[in-house]
Design brief:
The N and C termini lie far apart (48 Å). A hairpin with a 2-residue loop joins β6 and β7. α5 runs antiparallel to α6, α5 packs across α7 and α6 packs across α9. This protein has 219 residues and is α+β, with helices and mostly antiparallel strands.
Amino acid sequence: MYDFEHLLAICYDIASEHPGQVVFIGGVAAFLHVVNSPLASAYAEATHDGDFYVSLAGLHELRDTDELVSNKRPRKHSFTRAGFDFDVYGQYDSGLIVPFEEIAAYAVSYDGVNVAAIEHLFALKLAALADRGGSSKGEKDVRDLARLSLVEHEFRPERLVPYLRDEHLEILSLLSSGSEIVGLAKGNVKEIKAIRRKLTEIAQSVERAWQQGGGQDQS
């Protein structure tokens, strides 16, 4: 946990160095949403690296302070600071399914650190699961989505359905039956049912919005 606290401190440094230019995604964003929610905080889980979206101007600034390495597949940049790895997704050159402008418009701030909205995290993690489901990172994505479903928040499906495809909806519909939930709830039957109920409610709300014409595969 000490290492994770150090990672969080660096995330706060990065946010302060590039105010308004950086929005954290991935495990750091999920942690901050969950740990700041009274109902979900007990499920918060540390992560070992940081991912963030950055504006074009912020990316240029970042090149002046850190040694970025570009990766063609996936389309991102990486750097290491104080022994921690960071993946950076640029405003115009990332492969993420939600554009930076949309992520930034609905970002939530925790003590000056902007993180992607819960709906956008759902979209990004569903896309990641489509690519790496069944891996250890995929299992962490499922746990994060289960945690995020418990955060006190009015879920707005219209924010994510424009970016989803059929395969993402299928993954979302199966989340509530995943074995990862049992481990997350440590076998507590009442908690397992509560998490599954919340994930089912979210899946149903997204399906309704999709049927109303919000999804990519709608004709």
